[in-house]
Structure formats: C-alpha cells, structure tokens
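Good morning C.,

I know you're traveling, so I'll keep this short. The sequence:
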Amino acid sequence: MIGVISDTHGLLRPETIAALRGVEHILHAGDVGDPRILEKLREVAPVTAISGNIDVHGPCSYLPATEVVTLHGHTFYMLHDRHALDLDPAAAGFSAVISGHSHRPLIEWRKGVLYLNPGSAGPRRFSLPISLALVTIDAGSLRPQLVNLP
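The tokens, ready to paste straight into the viewer:
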C-alpha cells in the first residue's frame, strides 16, 4: 500500500502518522513547508516528495518540481498543481498523476490513468476536509481510497 499526502504546510498531525503506519512508500505532492515533516515521514516508510508553491524559497526549495516513481510496475507522475500538467499521462505510459495544491481531495480516472489529489493533511482551509489517500496495488491494478482525518 502507498500513502499519498500533500499540503502539510509545516504541520504534521499525529493522526497523519497513524493513518500512514504500514504503508511501504509515501508520496508527498508538495507544499511541505518544513523538511522535518519529511524526516518524520521517513520513520514510517521511504518518502518521495516534490515542491509546492510555498516551497519555492526556504528550507524545502531543494525539492524537485516534478518526480516520476515506479512502484510495483506502476508509474506515478507527481506535480503539485494539476493545472500545470504539460504532457499526456496516458501517452507517456503513466499509471497515475499525483497532485495537490487545491486542498480538495479527488479521485478521477481518465483514459485509464488515475488522477489523485489526496487533499490537504495540513492546516484546515475553509470547510475542506483534512485528508490523505491510500493506494492499494493488487493484481496489477490501483485501488485508491481517500481517508478523512479527525
């Protein structure tokens, strides 16, 4: 199982760590805010993280803007803002596009590609939920699930 989070904005809730226990890899889709968050997440599982718009300057500016990760034969393309997508994920052979930025959780399938935004695991914004996602990989397929945190 893969854990997917985004938009922590410098806040790592204990509920986030609890929800990610047992995952084999964590994908952080940007707006990390504090590199200590990545250190704490690495205590749970290996982490692949990208930068978000708040990470352009400051302690997380070293993170790449995009990343490609292959896990169990599935290729995940990571970018913070889905509206900045400048390629055709299906033509590129990606299994999933992982993004954040909007703070709105989303699971959508297009041309056989999973588009997943886990929502925000950081500070509450408006009336949007605090959430993350889990992706189960079995029998060659991806099964995403959104998890709302208290």
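Safe travels,
E.
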